[in-house]
Amino acid sequence: MAEKKIKIIVAKPGLDGHDRGAKLLSRIFAEAGMEVVYTGLRQTPEMIVEAALQEDADVVGLSSLSGVHNYFFPKVVELLKAKKLANVLVVGGGIIPLEDIPELKKAGIAEIFGPGTSTEVIVDFIRSNVKAK
Amino acid sequence: MIMDYVAEILQGSPLAVSRVITWLENEDERARVLMKEIYSHTGNAYLLGITGSPGTGKSTLTDGVTWQFRNKGQTVGIVAVDPSSPFTGGALLGDRIRMTRHSEDPGVFMRSMATRGYLGGLAQFTRGAVKVLDASGKNYVIIETVGVGQDEVDVMRVADTTCVVLVPGLGDVIQSMKAGIMEIADIYVINKYDQPGADQLYSEVQFRVNQDASIKDRAWVPPVIRTVAVEGKGEDDLIEAIAAHRTYLEQSGKLLEKRRERTREETLQMIHHELFRIIRARLAENSRIESMVEKIMDHELSPYNVVEEVVGEWLPPAK
Ligand code: B12
Ligand SMILES: Nc1nc2c(ncn2[C@@H]2O[C@H](COP(=O)(O)OP(=O)(O)OP(=O)(O)O)[C@@H](O)[C@H]2O)c(=O)[nH]1
Ligand SMILES: [Mg+2]
Predict the structure, then answer these.
(1) Is residue B85 assigned to a domain?
(2) What separation in Å is there between the alpha carbon of A111 and the centre of ligand 1?
(3) Which of B107, B125, B282, B303 is most deeply packed, by most CB within 10 A?
(4) How many angstroms separate the CA atoms of B154 and B145, rounded?
(5) What residues does each domain of chain A span?
(6) Is B28 in contact with B36 (CB distance < 8 Å)?
(7) Cα gap B52→B182, rounded to integer Å
């Protein structure tokens, strides 16, 4: 069998236009040897999940800096489950108040990374938490 | 369990299609079992190739063509290939971003693929992915190549109709028309027609096409279509040209001829790949390949002797 690659969708849900972080991470993930699909701005949870399904993604990374995470992040997890994609690892980042994190984790987001997180930490977390297909 | 996947693919389940393409890419044994089962259900989709230099608008055009097909009630599968980094093995797959308006349309399935070191403009398992989409019932399968140079022409061996996308401002066209990529076009698309130099490019390409038509005796003269993909302009002309080429291939019997040639080449290539895989694995046992390399390095043996020895060991001489 050929070497398996981690495939990751990087998506920005909602109308948030801050895409520096998402673009930076897309590059970092590619340089870490992953196959990265950046879906661009203004994605609905449905679009993100459909992309994860068609690309057979191992990971969905959500980036939000405009305060929409409490609605969008759990919605993505819920739709993934509904599409039988419960195995997909969901991580998030951006501007997310600390007090929101416990609820997000409860909803199924594996980890949240805020501004200033070293990208090595993010890559390591993903590598050690992806699930087999 | 694999049989469930077969049934689901034939019913068009995106989840099954998606997973099997992953198995193909990973050379997972399950893919082989499955492909044997679904092969007899392939051959119904019409295969469209879109190639051209990096950034010429291939993805934007693919998006537009898909839109047009959908308006005619046709379903579409898309396989879009982007390069893997030779250094890190990673890849930025950026084609989907141009096609997000179809992401929730059940009549469209779009898959990005990294080349994983494979040359020629496609990934090694692009053909396999195309077959899966074909078997899943898509009417059209569009194959977008990586941004190509002059001689990455594999798409011609996969697609029924190949569109070569050119844009103004990329330098001396006539120079690049010498070989390779410029010879594989069934249809030329001059995209970014909103940009300066488009008219000149159009007349240069048109001139070259006419010249070709008088030198070579060609039954099909590639049309030159002008588009502004970001505005959807010219998409309808492109669709018409594709339909005309298809009709030409079907009525002249050339479609069968093309597909026969493709089947021959593909079969040989698959045999080649499989033999190589087996022999490489066997030579890795007891580091035999390493001792061979040492002997060759010391000039004790030549690689030519080694080839003879290895091939003779596993293949009986032809009768
Ligand atoms: C640059 C910037 C802009 C630029 C954006 C340019 C662009 N194309 O991205 C511009 C000037 C356009 C802009 C506009 C606005 N901005 Co602004 N902007 C910023 C600023 C200063 C920096 C953001 C940034 O790029 N950081 C650099 C990147 C690399 O960091 P990052 O995205 O945080 O990513 C890191 C982590 O969060 C994490 N991460 C992020 N995403 C993901 C995803 C995954 C999967 C993972 C694992 C990790 C991860 O990893 C990264 C590396 O550590 C922030 C303040 C700040 N210090 O964050 C405000 C800020 C985000 N902006 C803000 C606001 C309000 C706006 C505006 C609404 C209006 C305004 N007041 O200026 C508009 C809205 C624009 C829009 N359409 O959405 C607020 C948001 C407040 C909130 N959420 O409650 C902030 C926090 C400023 C503030 N303190 O008020 N902004
Ligand atoms: N001005 C203009 N820009 C266009 C046109 N078509 C596409 N573009 C832009 O050209 C850029 C590249 O378009 P893509 O469709 O991604 O090109 P591509 O050939 O798929 O690129 P690669 O897959 O990276 O080789 C984008 O910024 C498009 O918006 C056009 O007709 N006119
Ligand atoms: Mg593209």
Answers:
(1) yes
(2) 19
(3) B125
(4) 9
(5) 7-118
(6) no
(7) 9
Owning domain of residue B298: 268-314
The reported pTM is: 0.94
**Chain B CA closest to residue A3:** B26
- CB-based contacts of B161, cutoff 8 Å, min separation 6: B46, B47, B48, B49, B186, B187, B242, B245, B246, B249
CB B91 within 8 A of CB B83: yes
**Each residue of B45-60: pLDDT tens digit?**
999 999 999 999 999 9
CA–CA min distance B264, chain A (Å) = 25
Ligand 1 and A92: CB distance under 6 A: yes
| Ligand lying closest to the C-alpha of residue A61 | 1
**Residue B130 belongs to a domain with what CATH number?**
3.40.50.300
Give pLDDT tens digits for A55-100: 999 999 999 999 999 999 999 999 999 999 999 999 999 999 999 9
B88 and A37 within 8 Å at the Cβ level: the answer is no
Minimal Cα–Cα distance from A30 to chain B, Å? 4
Pairing state between β A35-38 and B187-190 = unpaired
Is residue B44 within 8 Å of B131, Cβ to Cβ? no
Q: In Å, how far is A95's CA from the nearest CA of chain B?
A: 24
Place of tokens 């410029």: B182
Q: Which of B74, B83, B79 is nearest to B109 (CA)?
A: B79
Chain A contact for B89 (CB, 8 A cutoff): yes
Quote the CA–CA distance of B131 and B59 in Å, as a whole number: 21
Q: Which ligand is nearest the CA of A60, by number?
A: 1
The fold adopted by the segment(s) A7-118 is: Rossmann fold (3.40.50)
